[in-house]
From TrEMBL, chain A:
GO terms for biological process: phosphoenolpyruvate-dependent sugar phosphotransferase system. The lineage of its organism: Bacteria, Bacillati, Actinomycetota, Actinomycetes, Streptosporangiales. GO terms for molecular function: protein-N(PI)-phosphohistidine-sugar phosphotransferase activity. Residues 9-90 form the Phosphotransferase system EIIB component type 2/3 domain. The keyword Phosphoprotein does not apply. This is PTS system ascorbate-specific IIB component. Keywords: Transferase. It comes from the Bacteria.
From TrEMBL, chain B:
Homodimer. It comes from the Bacteria. The keyword Transport applies. The chain crosses the membrane at residues 15-33, 45-78, 98-117, 129-145, 151-171, 224-246, 266-291, 325-350, 356-374, 381-401, 434-453. This is Ascorbate-specific PTS system EIIC component. Keywords: Cell membrane, Membrane, Phosphotransferase system, Sugar transport, Transmembrane, Transmembrane helix, Transport. Belongs to the UlaA family. It is a multi-pass membrane protein. It comes from Actinomadura coerulea. Coiled coil: none annotated.
Length: 100, 477
């Protein structure tokens, strides 16, 4: 682990109840496979604006709105695609030097 | 014997009657079953409990805003504001425990059905709708059978709700297969009837190949709209301001003075719009907080009992397929709803309250299915169907929940109206004493459907085996 603390990850969707929660569970699975120590929360876009996570995950409709909220913003189009998200996370976290 | 009776009474009043505590305990059990770490179990159960408390506070704020909104609009149009003997907050305080138990028992029954019948195929996982559909069902059952005890309500409600959760993703399946050909997950959303109507009615309108919404380019200025907090505040405030301009001065001044007696009615109108949106935001925050704990707990449980089942998920999971269609649906449903609001108010029928969240999700989903069938014309049709359903639904359904929770009519999706009126229509047949017929018929219909579907699927599999390997395309269900 190249980061000495828990990674803060935010899954967003329109109202922050249904699909972001699904996304949170997918992300937790992917992070477990990557062996990253992270805390994943889910919320709506409005609330997300007031937060400062390390990583934001959401569908393009929303990540476009909050593109500079976090150093890493990941856009997904499939909420259940654990492998795809895992690959994106691996690449982007390595880029930041958070994953070696 | 008295001791046992005392204990049961205590539990009924203080545990099963108090939603925050009951939800906390259900979450605690769910997290313990998954053998989570102590701190996760403890904090999770507490978060779920606080979430419910916040939900109740949000409902109080929202209801207050709704009352002011309806008063001003009714005065502007010279009609009487809708009256009700009860509020959602009272109803939840009274029946919240029953609702929490309906969710739990119905979920267990639903898991069992999905385990037993391969044709059931999808596990319903849209948490907030699991809560609201149970609320609508309990409110409808209380209307049919006012004297029923909690046990009757829980079992009847759970039977009906479990049947709905099982069947709803199935009747959306043919349309979903056009959106998500790989069939990895189903569609679990109470907009299903509006989507279904749109999907079939859009057929003659065109084809996706020629008129796909995703070839359109929408103006960027519309993008703030999809933040439902912003659009709710904006639209309600504008309508409030117009209302104040036409309303009786005395009525408005009196209402404004209730908030602060030095307040200008215009500023009051803006504040009411903002508070209305704020109330909904608080309500959603609370729902999010308890769902964040309880849904993973439910999912963990079902993953253990039925590994590898396909989940049925919330509407936005399909939105990435056609985001432009979603915006077309949202905008067109909002326009149609606002036109209805004007027409209804002008005719003196009922003062509608624009439900921005429902216009977004139901309008968006219906438009998305409309687009798969017929391109942008189908998407617009989806918006129109949604706007009309929500407007007419609100106007006619408010009275149905007069004595339970009338706000259920303003917060509703199409399926809520259908369930409310279906149970209401059953009332003369079923009556208070034989409320058990409701779950009996629902479960009967569910089992019959699953057996027929199962047989049809078996036959199709056999046919395909014969015709294999060249015809790999699966037939529509």
């Amino acid at each position: 682990m190249a980061l000495d603390r828990q990674l803060e990850i935010l899954a967003v969707c329109g109202v922050g109840m249904g699909s972001s929660l699904m996304l949170k569970m997918t992300a937790e699975d992917a992070l477990r496979s990557l062996g990253v120590d992270a805390r994943v929360e889910n919320t709506d876009v409005s609330t997300a604006r007031g937060m400062s996570p390390d990583v934001v995950i959401g569908q393009g409709m929303h990540t476009g709105e909050i593109a500079d909220l976090a150093p890493v913003v990941i856009t997904i189009s499939d909420f259940l695609d654990k492998e795809g998200l895992e690959a994106q996370l691996r690449e982007r976290l390595t880029e930041q030097g958070w994953l070696s | 014997m008295d001791v046992i009776k005392d204990i049961l009474t205590f539990l009924a009043d203080n545990v099963f009657g108090q939603v925050p505590i009951l939800i906390g305990l259900i979450t605690l059990a769910g997290l313990l079953l998954q053998r989570k770490r102590f701190e996760d179990v403890f904090a999770g159960a507490l978060r779920a409990t606080i979430g419910v408390v916040i939900l109740f506070i949000g409902i109080e704020v929202f209801t207050g805003g709704l009352t002011s909104f309806q008063t001003v609009l009714a005065s502007a149009m010279g009609t009487t504001p809708p009256k009700a003997d009860n509020t959602l907050a009272d109803f939840l305080a009274d029946q919240g425990g029953t609702i929490a138990l309906v969710i739990t028992v119905a979920f267990l029954a639903h898991v069992l059905v999905v385990r037993l019948f391969p044709a059931a195929r999808y596990l319903y996982l849209t948490g907030h709708l699991m809560f609201w559909i149970s609320t609508v069902t309990v409110a409808s059952l209380v209307t049919i059978a006012p004297g029923a005890d909690q046990l009757t309500l829980v079992l009847c409600g759970a039977g009906f709700v479990a049947a709905y959760w099982t069947l709803q993703p199935l009747w959306m399946r043919p349309l979903m297969r056009r959106v998500m050909p790989d069939d990895r997950f189903g569609f679990a959303h109470t907009s299903s009837l509006a989507c279904l109507i749109t999907g079939y009615a859009a057929r003659p309108l065109g084809s996706r190949d020629k008129h796909d919404t995703e070839k359109l380019k929408l103006p960027r200025q519309l993008s703030f709209f999809k933040d439902v907090n912003v659009s709710t505040a904006l639209i309600i405030t504008v309508i409030m301001l117009v209302g104040v301009a036409f309303a009786d001065h005395g009525v408005v001044t009196k209402a404004a003075a209730e908030m602060d007696d030095k307040l200008s009615p215009w500023v009051w109108a803006v504040l009411v719009g903002l508070r209305f949106a704020g109330g909904i935001a608080i309500l959603l925050f609370g729902v999010r907080m308890f769902l964040g704990e309880i849904v993973p707990a439910f999912k963990g449980f079902s993953d253990r009992v039925i590994p590898g089942t396909r989940p049925a998920l919330d509407a936005p999971t399909v939105f990435p397929v056609a985001p432009t269609a979603v915006m077309v649906g949202f905008v067109s449903s909002t326009v149609v709803f606002l036109v209805c609001l004007g027409v209804f108010a002008g005719a003196g029928w009922f003062t509608l309250a624009p439900p921005m969240i429902m216009l977004f999700f139901v309008g968006g989903a219906a438009a998305l299915f409309g687009n798969v069938v017929a391109g942008w014309r189908g998407a617009v049709l989806g918006g129109v169907v949604t706007g009309l359903t929500l407007a007419v639904g609100q106007a006619v359904t408010w009275g149905l929940y007069e004595r339970t929770a009338p706000e259920l009519a303003t917060l509703a999706d199409p399926d809520w109206y259908a369930i409310g009126w279906l149970l209401k229509a059953a009332d003369p047949v079923v009556g208070g004493n034989s409320v058990w017929l409701v779950p009996a018929v629902a479960v009967g219909a569910m089992i019959t459907t699953l057996l027929l579907l199962g047989r049809a699927e078996k036959r199709r599999a056999a046919d395909e085996e014969e015709a294999a390997p060249e015809s790999a395309a699966p037939a529509e269900a």
